[in-house]
Design a protein that fits this description.
two-stranded antiparallel ribbon, 17 helices
Length: 534
């Protein structure tokens, strides 16, 4: 009388003939065979008879018993049922393999150091030795295996598993898109919401820099890839302009207090400058408008100051507002660099992968942003380390910064000096034919890059909107070209035939992923979609 069976993991367990009958009954149902439970039990009884008559020497294994079940089904004339049983058996084996692989993966994450585990070092800006980093890896690796087993078409999952292709960021397969170019001018105008609270429009370069970091951090939580600011110099120049305006007003009040008998210096400066701004349609700026300056001098004279004193007050305010704005801009850029190398996103386990593009703004405010970003980068972090983030891209263009006579040539030289020491910035050449075809003389048509080397510009669907802001990647998949070359053995025609086949496969896979992404809602990406970043 057969009492025990050896399971796949080597353990000995009690033998239950009804389990054979259960599996056979499911096979009958799978192929729509009109057989009842009694027939399944008869098949099971025949298998038991074979076992007891010595069909398998010693204690039988699960695999051996299943082989006998297939044999008995075929002998009994149930060929289609045998095929269904084989498929059922294969599927059960696949599920076991996945579960076993997942457990081993979780063990590796739990008990290995990042230094000893390729898996835990997979993403350079995640510290997988920390509690949150480990938890992130639990979710990531579990999601990958779930999608491979239950979501992705088996053809694509098999190609990925066997290394013919690599589906990037598979742990986010059903969740979101890859990356985006954030336009700060659009985002900051009127303020924005992070999903946890509404932030007012910033009014100082320090606030602009801080909110730029928050924008990158917030968007990083809505996507699985990197985040890039496409208008860094243009966007933060607005903050410099507001800072100078505020400081000019402050220093005008100081000059009035020190050099005149005008009462209520702050109130006078506030009201007088507001009136002049309204009348002239201009504001105090680094490149001071002559009419605006003359109007301020005239207002001071009218209030009782002599002309020499009025000139002196305005000159004092211009000089000190310019100096203080420059210092505050440097501090803001320094804080931005430090923040982007230390702040966390995604459950507190990852530093946002950030990039910024600059170099083309020739306004005094934009130039001040570029200069101080380069100086802060060259200075490095607290102990002199080279900052990893943000990845910086300096846009180069003749007529703007490439030749000695160009207005931003000094900044191009400073960028090369900084890059020689700190590896950043990288350089993007807008006059290269691949880029020049899109440039229409406006900031939004300037090519912008991301730290992952991606650049989204062409627009087959709407050629009139070939712009950078708000553009990004959906997803991507790599093809294993060296493997195709090895298989082709020097036959170029065969290589391209193999490549065509893989391109068709990957196109299908990306279409499948896009259909899933297209079913998402704005509430799934409250910052990316809800704030109009995409």
């Amino acid at each position: 009388m057969l009492k025990t069976i050896i399971k796949r993991d080597g353990r000995t367990a009690e033998f239950h003939p009804q389990k054979i009958a259960d599996a056979v009954e499911k096979s009958f149902q799978a192929c729509a065979a009109m057989q009842d439970r009694a027939t399944a039990e008869q098949i099971a009884a025949t298998v038991v008879e074979k076992l007891e008559s010595g069909a398998i020497e010693g204690t039988p294994t699960v695999e051996g018993v299943q082989d006998l079940v297939e044999e008995t089904l075929i002998e009994s004339g149930f060929v289609q049922t045998a095929k269904a049983y084989i498929l059922y058996r294969a599927e059960r084996s696949r599920v076991r393999d996945v579960n076993s692989r997942l457990i081993q993966t979780l063990k590796d994450i739990t008990f290995s150091k990042a230094a000893d585990s390729d898996m835990k070092r997979e993403n350079a800006n995640i510290d997988a030795d920390t509690a949150m980093g480990t938890m992130l890896k639990y979710g990531s690796e579990s999601a990958k295996q779930f999608y491979e087993m239950c979501v992705i078409d088996p053809r694509y999952a098999k190609a990925h598993r066997e290394g013919d292709i690599h589906i990037h960021d598979m742990d986010f397969y059903t969740l979101t898109t890859t990356c985006c170019q954030i336009e700060l001018r659009k985002l900051f105008k009127g303020g924005f919401s992070t999903g946890h609270g509404v932030l007012r429009e910033p009014n100082d370069i320090s606030s602009y820099a801080a909110l730029a970091c928050i924008a990158i951090q917030s968007n990083q939580n809505d996507q699985h890839g990197g985040q890039s600011v496409c208008d860094f110099d243009y966007g933060l120049a607005v903050g410099v302009r507001k800072t100078f305006r505020r400081l000019f007003k402050k220093h005008i009040a100081e000059g009035i207090d020190l050099l005149t008998d005008i009462a209520d210096d702050r109130d006078f400066a506030e009201k007088t400058l507001a009136r002049i701004e309204e009348e002239t349609g201009t504001i105090a700026s680094l490149e001071m408008d002559a009419d605006f300056r003359a109007a301020v001098v005239a207002a001071l004279v009218e209030a009782g100051a002599d002309e020499a004193t009025a000139d002196r007050i305005v000159a004092y305010a211009e000089k000190n507002a310019s100096r203080d704005t420059d210092r505050q801009t440097f501090q803001a850029m320094e804080a931005l660099v430090h923040n982007l190398n230390t702040m966390h996103s995604r459950a507190g386990a990852q530093t946002p992968f950030s990039s910024v593009n600059y170099g083309m703004d020739t306004s005094p405010e934009g130039r001040m942003v570029i200069k101080n970003m380069l100086l802060a980068t060259e200075e490095g972090l607290g102990s002199g380390e080279t900052p990893i983030f943000p990845v910086q891209i300096f846009r180069v263009k003749e007529g703007v910064n490439y030749n000695p006579e160009d207005p931003n040539y000094d900044l191009f030289k400073l960028a090369m000096h900084c890059s020689a020491k700190r590896l950043f910035p990288n350089f993007s050449f807008l006059d290269a034919p691949f880029n020049a075809q899109y440039y229409k003389g406006t900031p939004e048509t300037e090519i912008a890059y991301m730290g992952c080397r991606t650049r989204v510009m062409g627009n087959v669907y709407d050629p009139d909107r070939e712009v950078t802001p708000g553009r990004g990647n959906l997803s991507f998949t790599s093809i294993n070209l060296p493997r195709l070359a090895i298989r082709a053995k020097g036959d170029i025609d065969l290589f391209f035939d193999l490549l065509d086949s893989k391109l068709q496969l990957v196109t299908g896979q990306l279409d499948e992923r896009f259909e899933i992404q297209a079913r998402k809602h704005v509430y799934n990406a409250p910052f990316l979609m809800g704030q109009g970043v995409w």
